[in-house]
Protein 1
Amino acid sequence: MAELDTSSGGGKKGGKVRSKKASTKVDLTAMVDLAFLLITFFMLTTTLNKPQAMDIAKPDKDDKNDQKLELRASQTMTILLGKNNKVAWYMGEAGKSAPNIQNFTEIRKSILDNKQKVKATTGKDIVMVIKPTAGANYKNFVDIMDELNITGIKTAPAIDDENITDAEKSFLKSQGLL
Amino acid sequence: MSRAKVARKSTSIDMTAMCDVSFLLLTYFILSATAKQPDPLDVKVPSSTYKIKVPEKDIAILTIGKDKVFFEAAGPDIRAATLDKMGEQYKISFTPEEKKRFSVIASFGVPIQSLKKFIAMDAGERKKSGIETGIPADSLNNQLADWILQSRKSVAELHSQGMRVSIKGDGSEGYPTIKKIVDILQKQKINKFSLITTAEGK
């Protein structure tokens, strides 16, 4: 198909100058290769370009029903999200133990350590409380939720941006994180 | 005895038909891939390891960035119905032509008072005019809450399903801005919503 008849005037006699017959058959292999490569690329991008969703559930905020659920101090880990991509975390009750300040790259190890510790001492799963402060940005919030997913925390984390205690606030302020 | 001779055949195959087919497919995929509309608000979505896909139907996307909120409801029928309800509420009547034009606009961020002007513009003008100041979402003039509520009603009426709300926020956006929007959602008893993120390798 990809060939043209180039043998024009082939049957003539006589010593005329003949141009050299070059085959017009083009090697299409490379072209087909390229086409399939592009097809693969476009096929994958159309299906893979869909954004991912992270489902978040927040506690019901009812104005009338203002009851609060107390959490057991021995199995609670609270993470405060502060300014400059820093987090502060503590176990148990606020104010009793000084919070540790870490980066987002280090927090995963702490979560895993505490998860194991809680499991070993109480036999129950760890409960996470996330408190994003006004200093945090949206990426920090998504990152910390992602860390919980990576570390395999199955219980739904409590996202609490209402009840940041004064002790927590003053601690963050003193560390320059708020 | 003479051996049976095997005829030598050329190993080059005619690639023309294969080439035709592959380019046809290529054309199809290129055309179907570029149908996506550009986002009017440029946001850099943070990445996560979550692998749940965002549904394409019955969803509203709130784009948050630079202290502005843009709103998008999925599906032309939902958009038209939502505009109808909003017009009723704010005493603005939209012509069928305007409704048709509105139903193909994906994400928008104008106060409803200047929505008529916004619809009349073409895509290039919209971006240039600086009319897109975000949807008002403060407590005195909470149009965002109305948009969400009316689109939820439209989805419930037309598709008899609950609408999902997802937030597409810029990574560097301060948490208070996000919290303000989330509080609006929670006022409407939407306690479960999804955050849109991009995929990330573990």
Protein 2
Amino acid sequence: MRLKNIIICLVITTSICLAYVRQQVEIVKLSYVLRDKEKCLNQLVDHNKTLLYNNMSLKSPQYLASMLEQNKMVLSFPEPAAVAKVRVIRKAQQQFAKTPGLSWKTNLFDVLVPKAQAASDKRE
Amino acid sequence: MHKRQEKLRFAVVFFAYLFILLIIFFRLLYIQVLNYDDYIKLADSQHNLTLKLSPQRGSILDRNLKTFAMSLKVSSVYAVPRVIKNKSEVAAKLSKILDIDYNNLLEKLNRDKAFVWVKRRIDDSLAERLTQEPIPGVSLLTENKRYYPNNGLAAHVVGFAGIDEQGLSGVELIYDKYLKGQFGTRSMLRDAKQRMMPAFEFEYIPEINGYNIVLTIDQVIQHIAEQALDAGFAKSKAVGASVIVMNPENGEIYALVNRPGYDLNAFGNADPEAKRNRAVSDYFEPGSTFKIITASAAIEEKVVALDEVFFCENGEYKISRHILHDHKPHGNLSFVEVIEKSSNIGTVKVAQKLGEKLLYEYIKRFGFGEKTNIDSPGEVAGFFRPLKQWSKLSISALPIGHEIGVTVIQMARAMAVIANGGYQVNPHLVDKIIDKNNEIIKDIEFEPQPRIISEQTAATMRGILKGVVDNGTGKSAQVKGYSTAGKTGTAQKVIPGEGYSHSKFIASFIGFAPVDKPKVVIAVVFDEPRPFYYGGTVCAPIFKNIAEKVLKYLDVPMEEGLENRSSVVTDKD
């Protein structure tokens, strides 16, 4: 009887110990996976930043001006007479807002003037 | 006999065991007690790893949050010479891939060291090649590198950071403490393969990335100013040139350009002359543009009436054995005409009525001889002698911008006083400091500045300076659709030990637009332009080109009746 109790106690203790060790092993394994994912994430973030930098370089005024010059294109501000001022009635505005893929605030007017373009970038 | 032998054997075995136990005991004593600290350190260094976490340097942005400077991760190559067996072979291979000197690299690899840099901040393609074709004893480390997506745009404002990302020039230097951030640490266990085990992390103090700096510079206006200046600079073959575009109400600088310029991504190759921010660190005799100070003082002190007539001596005026000349002979001119036609003799006669003391006081009030405290390194105060050191000739030199050294920023600030109705302004390049979530960390604000001249004097001066552009020496600064005002200047350069040069000049035009509610002050200064050297010829057209585009960009409505005017070419002062 006594031996039986001792064996049961030993089995329980061993099981608890094994469970604990298993848990620790799993934690270590998971930490390796986490480390690899973290490394991968950092690489992707860095790559994203590099792409952002490339994007910024391509959008820089100096680069755009050199491209225009290369292609012999001359851009100028429109004369006041050439600018059509759009007056939209509320109903048309609502219809426009419902059109998928078009945002009333950003898509129409933001492309007209450089200042609005800058404001649009700021929002981004 | 047998028993005795048995006892002996027992004793031998006992003492042998005892001896071994004693050895083990003393060895344990040596390891666990006597050299405890050393072994603990050794074990710690094998099991524990403490990483120093480098913060990312903050970005520099324009007023619309477009990037001027940012940091990116790049790879650097290092070697462990003690591990490398065939050093000459490794040196040959690396020098070919990385395009570096073989002998220099071999000398590095022959050093008895655990770490040497091979090449820092290499291209991604090279890093990938080294990853795919690994060389034993050679590894890659990730470091931050500063990049400037606009290359040379606003180079003198933004400045540059060195190889270890410490600010060396411009805003990069002045705001280094905000940009650089704080290092963090991370301590954790390592496994037998020396891999980090994030599950057993003891301490983690995260790095604090640097804050972002938002400039008052507008990338579009900066580009407009640079393009206009580049065109004029190429034509004039000048030694140097500067342009400042400033908001006269609050001193915000929209654009600051110096030529020659340089590429921020290759600042190491640039000529030191090109790196100098001439607009704040060079002073010059302004010549006729300085007449705005004399005229403002005379009007404020009511020593002249606008219609008061001055005899301009037909171009030659003798003062204490010296003869003062006008660029063109004039007879009688009203006070307004004296400024419009930029008569030196007329201006000196106005200054004589004003007196030395008042002239000195107004020059000081406008801030000459003192730094403007703009947030750019290397600013100089210029040169302005105290009243006690004035000679008899000073009253005939200072009113027309001689015997005084000013910077371009000082002249732009003086013109801003007239444009904004008489208040002093603080020229500045940084608007605010923000964190990564665009929360404001520090807003750069200034206390209200004192009034220099009355609103009425400023309005009168604006009218007179409008006349300079409409009828006087600054006709080339007329802008289609907008009224403009300003003052031209052409000063002979002082050659040390020789006096005034007859072939080297400083040409300038400082003005603002629109006249009624000025939105921008633009200062254009050229150093030794050739063959034309008059401010009205060299600088006023650049002012016109910049003002025309900037006012449209800022959505300033055109003024009625001016839509069809075009500028007239002038060739004097």
Protein 3
Amino acid sequence: MAATDQTYRNQKTLDIVFAVSCILMLLGTLWMFWQDYDRQFKHIQRQFRDVEEALSEYQMLAALPSQEQVAEARNKVTAAKKEYEAAHNKLLSRERELMAKHDLADFAYRSLKADFDSKTSLYNIAVEHLGKAEEPKRQKELQEEAEKLYKEMSELQDRLIKAQDELDQIKQQINKEVTQPLEGPQQQFNRAEEELKKLTANFDRYAKATVQKRWKWDDIFRSLPILDAFESPTKIKQVWLPELTIDYGGFKDVPRFDRCISCHLGIDRANFDHASLKRLTLSPELARKELEKAEARKKELEGKEGSEEQIKRMEGQIAQLKEEVKRSEGMQKRLDIAREILEARKAAGENLGFDPDKLPTKVNWLKLDKGQIAMYAAHPRLDLFVDANSPHPMEKFGCTICHQGQGSATDFVNAAHTPADAGQEEEWHKEYGWAHNHFWDFPMLSSRFTESSCLKCHHEVTDLIRYGSKTEAPKLLRGYELVREYGCFGCHEIAGIKSGREVGPDLRLEPQPALAYLTPAEQDKAKADPLNPPGTYRKVGPSLRRLAEKTNQDWVRKWIYAPRSFRPDTKMPHFYGLSNNSPDVLHQAAPEQERFPDTEIAGIAYYLLAESKGNLEGKDTTRETLKGVIAKRQQQLVKGPLAEREWKELQDASRRLGELALIAVPAQADEINRLIVLLKQAQEVLQELHKKEANQKDGGLSPGEQEERKQAAQDVETRLKELLAVGQITPLAKRISDEEDKAVELPKPPADAEREKHVSNGRRLFTEKGCLACHSHEGTTKPGLGVAAAPGEANFAPNLSRLAAKIAPEIADEKGMEEAKRRWIVQWLLNPTVYHPRTRMPITHLTPAEAGDVAEWLLSQKVTDWDDKGPNEPTKEDLVALARVYLAKAPGFTRADVEAVLPATGGDLPGIAKERLENLPPDADERKLEGPVTEDKLKWYIGRKAINRLGCFGCHDVPGFETAKPIGTALNDWGKKDPERLAFEDADIFVRTHYHIVPLRNDPNDPKKPAADWHAKDNKPPYEKIYADAVQEHRREGFLHQKLMEPRSFDFDRKLAWEDRLRMPQFRFARTKKRDGESEEAYQARQEFEEAEAREAVMTFILGLVAEPMPLKYLNQPNPDRLAEIKGHQVLDKFNCAGCHQVRPGVYEFKTTPEGLKVLEDSYNTNRSSLKKDHFFPGHSAWEGVAQTAADRLRVFGTQPKVNDTDFERPMLVVRSTDALRFAGTDGVVRNLPAASNVPINLDDLIARADPWGGTFVDLMIQYRKPTEPDADKVRSVAPPPLIREGERVQPNWLYGFLLNPPPIRPTTWMMLRMPKFNMSPEDARALVNYFSSVSRLTNPGAGVRSEYVNVPEREEIYWRTRTAEYVQRLKEQKKYEERVQEMEPIWQDALRRRIAEAEASLPAAEEAVKQAKDADAKKQKQADLDVLKERIKFWKSDRGKEQLRKEWEETGAYATDAYKLLTDRNLCLQCHNVGDVVIASPQGPNLALTAERLRPEWVKEWIANPDRLFGYKPAMPQNFPNDTLQYQDRFVGKTIDQVIAVRDILMDLSRVAAMPGNRSRTALAAGGSK
Amino acid sequence: MQLWSIPTLALALAGAFVLTAADAVQAEGWGTVKGQVVWYGNEVPKRAPINVTKDQEACEKNGKLLEDKLVVNPKNKGVRWCLVYLMDVSGFNKDIPIHPKLQTVPSKTVELDQPCCQFEPHFLAMREGQTLIVKNSATIAHNVNLVGGVRGPNVNQIVPPGGKFQVEDIKARNIPIMVKCDIHPWMSGRIAVLKHPYFAITDEDGHFEIKDAPAGAFRLVIWHEESGWVAGDDKPSRNGKKITIQAGATTDLGKISLKPAE
């Protein structure tokens, strides 16, 4: 184309295009500006200003003083001012006059002072020059000048002093004539002004805030577009957390920015509570409307059955609403008054600091919806979070570290909020267009799971319990307890350690055999690895090693088939009849597998029983295999050295055999460990010597070595035999043994005539001896057999209601069977560790006869209500079919092999050929299939394979699976597992087709109850919509929820081979029990509801396992005492100590109101009679309360919480305090309400309540004994004692020994039961001892528990000398000294007589010895001895003898001798206690000889002084030495507290004191007198 | 000051009421109430002998000890040791008019003794303002454990032979104080404390009589240690039974049957 000057494009078009694009760009830019300007948080912050204004306004009006009061105060101010002015006026002329004088004098003084100063400096200069001048002439001149100046200066000084005097005088005059007379009026004026200020201070403050918070013109201006970039009133607020980084997946360690506070603006302001915010919206119209609605709802409810409770609640609501209506109606008027007051004050010229005209003229009712209120509200637990003084201040922790979500987002949707339920979800969707944010991996935890986050830093979990009983994260703690109880860690690893750092709770199984059974060296080795310390959790199920002695195959099959049908509240989960293996599912999906479940169950049952029997005979498969391997290799070894592989095989097999022995018979651990070492040594000797021989070219071994080898060859054989013998279980049929492992005779069955008596006694023992602290039994819930009802609900251990149907070993003849049943139960009761070495069941200390009676009763409780349907008996074809499935998977087996071994066509089963067998490893399961194959062999094979697949050994000790590894997915960081990696499959279809989907689970009006539509429909159980959605949307919690609910439903609609089906069993956590009079439907609904809650608790725990390593300073690192408390709590839980003992008091926090304080004061006054008798111990928590942490509330620790509606105007919660409560009464006087007081708390004032921890069994016994013993304290005195203050009470070494092997303390004749002996390790015992000491230090620093060890000064010579000196002094002062000496006279004489008689009796022998002496030297020696003896007799006979005794008494004896009189007074301690050998008719308390080793001296003193204050209940022990009465002066001279201390002192050193001269006879006297 | 200014809240309110009401509320005359508490069944329970496990010599010096909680006269089925008192219709804490001659508390002290390992009297009733003296005239020691609950006193003190102690300022309450000796576990007694003089303990025939009571509608409350509340409008309750006292006459309530709670 030719060149032209025409442009390529038409210029005009281009212009247009340019113009259009300019405009578009401008629009785009504007749009961009607008978008940036119109951000959500800005609107929110703008609205928040209104909320702040309204709230200030509300508070201003709430603080509105009455007009009259203000007027009065104002008048007072004016009057005072007037008075002042009047007085001032009177003095005005005089004041002026004096002031004028003052000014003149002041002027004169000042000018003189100036002159003087100038002269002084001139003089100084002159003197300085004089010093420097060298010429004499100049010196003279200067000297003169200086002298002149000095003279002038002195003159000036005199005048100055005079002027000053004058001035002072005038000042004094002013003071006297003007200032002083005005002082009174001035003060009055000040006071009046203060009064006024007090009256109006709050009001003024809020009024000012109201004005300030109003949105004003400058706010509008500053928030205009573009301008808002500078000093906008709305801006993003954020917390920057450089250490709490976020892992964005790959971009590690990105600092965290939490901008949540851009919208949650009131989060840290205590006064922004929900109720206050709600009130801001309640205009009179709205309040009236709500009231009408509430009234209508109440009417609706009336007449409906079972709605009384709801009506009551409605009534409360209505009353409240009525109040609100009244309040809101009065608001406008109050505002008008407020304005009036302020205007008047402004008019009066007061400087208010703001302009009252700017106050709103009309009450502005805000329009806030539920969501907005939630957004602006303060954090509900400012005491724990957000607040700067709380343990988790916002500045340090931010928000998202706990809540998750996208902290950097500034709008609702992007922040990844998560709704709590379907209702909220829908609301949000409508309101904010909210949808789940798939692009953010860690959306906010819904409020259901907020507690999960606590696990990030609180790895011990029990550190979330405060004050021993207050659970701060109840749901998480429940989840933790359930995980512990149900043993999730048996299959799933929960390790808590990630690359050497602690990242979560550690719940791992203990090694097998348990550490305690290993040698100390092995134990140390196991503990040496800090990155992988041994686990500590025992398997949660019983050992199955001796199953054949307990039950039979038939029962085992029925049990495995459906454990909950036998025991509805068992923790054993269901493995069969589930969504992937129930008969109907299989029938449809895989008909060829339809009979597999029954076949498999039969196989498992067969395997367990067969192996258990084998075990009892020493012939179980593992043992046989190991024995075979060892024998074979040892035979080889005797002949020559083993090859490397063979040697390893021998070593491995020997080790495993040893471990097997330790697992089976740990009671023989020492012997087994010894033999293991000896066997290993012998094997090594052989191997070494063989090797040496082979290496030596000539000669061979020395004769000695040959001998050694010969010996070793013998040794390996005998040691193996011995090891097998020691590791061999002794069957019960041969021997039952007691707690010390001594053989015991099985009590004979009672004769028929006697039977009922024994059965009844058995039931009584079962009830009273503590079984019900852990177990429950239907049979005890109703009275019968002459025993009262004891409806225990403990579920720490199995419910034993149907035990009689379970204890049934396989024994042919019926009589033998009966005996075998009793045998098992008696052995279990006498020493359960024989059957199950790792059981937590303690040794009960029942006698064999008592155990026999308990067995008699348990077996007499026939089971009639069990639908004992079990699986079908498999046919041979079934067995073959299933065995083929497993065989096909066996290593090295092809289809053809399977066909050859187990032909599908039926007929004879050739089995595995001999040659093939040889090539299989020695422990291959397939070895069992050696031909000809029987049905039993097939069952064994199937059973073993099934157990392996299902992981039964995660909970049970299963013979043959000693080394098996857990089968489940590790849960270490499941809480942040990528949902992409979860196989949801078609679970959502399953959920939709199998459940009745319900929007809400909890009743919105009462969240503790199920919602109205929460029930099964068309046989479909209820399912919460939020979880159905979560499954559909493939969210973590959806998967977890469904996995726990129906674990195998993810197989739904899948064609799967048998062995590929999901294996997780189905647990049920809630253990709901049907209530009396509850309908079946209501029960079902409640069951589903409680199950859902429990499941959610487990989920809360698992979702918290995120394994995020936190910076060290964020981890909860308690101080040593607190850590001991936390760890001890876990051990207390492990052995269910709280089942019997009350371990910690309850915690009650309440607001202090004038009424409440008044009632407390009354309580203080009712205590006066006991206070007078009390000895006060300052600093001790029982007498002196701690300062409360918050000014507006009190915290009380106490037991026996009870609502009392008889002694007060309105019902009060009354607790018996365990710690003194310090409070300031309405009169401002600070009082100490000591422990053991009844503290009444107004129910409305209660802020937090946590009831005492523990003592369930005692409470049950109180109920049980009630018909015969209505006095609960008497029952408490024979039941397990409370352990409150245990740390300050007992000596740690004593407690340690006691825990490991508890002897009886209080008389067994008096007590209902005895402390059992727990299957506890020394570590556990130590943890408990530390727990109690530490709790004492934490809760009562004044008790003097300072270290882990106890110092008992009362056992030291110097202590006694000091005390005695004091006492003798007192005797002399009280003129009792001579009296005492006279009293002692006969005792001394008696002692002298005895000494002389003893000496004289030995005289002849000494004389004889002199005669018999062989040589001179010996004679001399003997003669000297004789002389000494004679000298001694002479001394005792002379006056000096008596004098010596008197001296001894005066120096070390007088105090103890007199104190001993108190102890042995028949009317004091000896009323209830034995003292050493002095025994009384029916003792109630411990023998006092135990005191010295058992109790801490300080506690003994406080206890004797006033027992009531130190116990969890009112003890029977009386006050022997009340403070207000002087008694027993004839026995011990001193004040009552001296008597207390004296008794304590001798108790702490009793054996020595009792042996003192005078005391021996007194002991005899007391012993004689008390009989 | 403390002593007077801080009685329990309830009492303070009631007290305030009295101060103003004492003049305002006047009884319309005075009358007597009497009646008899009898065992409900035909079979009269026997007093079981007490198993004295210690100090037999001192305890049984006057004969064997018999159960003293439930004492029913076999002759007329009268139940001894029942506390009977009047109460205002609106509740226990309201005061009722007191006859002028009964206004002052007659004797400053009441005594409780334990000569033979049982409390004597077994059931003591006293007026607020009286002082309780606990004696021990036996030759052995007893401890006296007063279980006074929220209204006190809660004292547990050993009393040597011949010893005694006193408790002042015991507040009125509707359920009597329990007193026990833990050394001799069978020993138990009761102490009722009331604000007015209109109370009685039934005698061995189950009779009670309350004299100079204000006329008008009141509630008669009866309580027995083992059975709890005895009288009631339809069933026994702590509010007792509604009665009307005739002025200048004796209101005989006849037989009131006692049936132990199950």
